[in-house]
Amino acid sequence: MAKDRDEFTPELVAGLVGMVPLVGSLAQPLARHVTTKMMEERERNASVVLQLACQRSGYSREDLNELLEREPALVTLVNRVLYQAAMNGQTTVLQVLAGFLGDALSDTSKIDDVHALLAPIATLSDHHIRVLVELNASSEEPDDLATWNFSALLAAVPIRSEIVLAAIQGLYAGGFAQSRGLDGGDASGLLGGELISITPLGQTLLEVLSAIRSDEGTG
To answer: What's the pTM value of the predicted model, to 2 decimals?
Structure first.
């Protein structure tokens, strides 16, 4: 299996990234250098995802080209994933996109499932996923949905509290976490507040992320 990223920068990536709109003055000739740098970064992001997805599925570039010819339904999915990769660029989100795309390459029956997940994944950032990892930290059994008190979660995640709050709201909106009601706390009122837990979808995302990191060799 090839590891050279250049092998995974076919015309598909360059053509797709070229469709990503540039706004305002960045499209003007005087900003050509900045525009070029933006396009290079978008192409790099899309290329990283394509490389990791191929590693996960075991496909080479040539294998992928043949698969896309055999399975036209994959073309739209690959285009959507690479577009999201080009527009995002955050490491863990790129890994998540690559993991789900790799699953669809390996099993084309999952194409519609991955399509459905792209919209909520597109709203995520590295901070969202960091909070999601912490939410899952106390889950000891595969079917046990870890539940955190909001105050305890704020203390556990080494990010500013307002960022954690925003991340939690984003995880709720995407279906990756859920509110489990209120905890009245102990007699002194300590640790009272909202209870938050990861959802099965959130667990699935973390499983895919763990697998893609293992494929990548980053642990």
So the answer is: 0.77
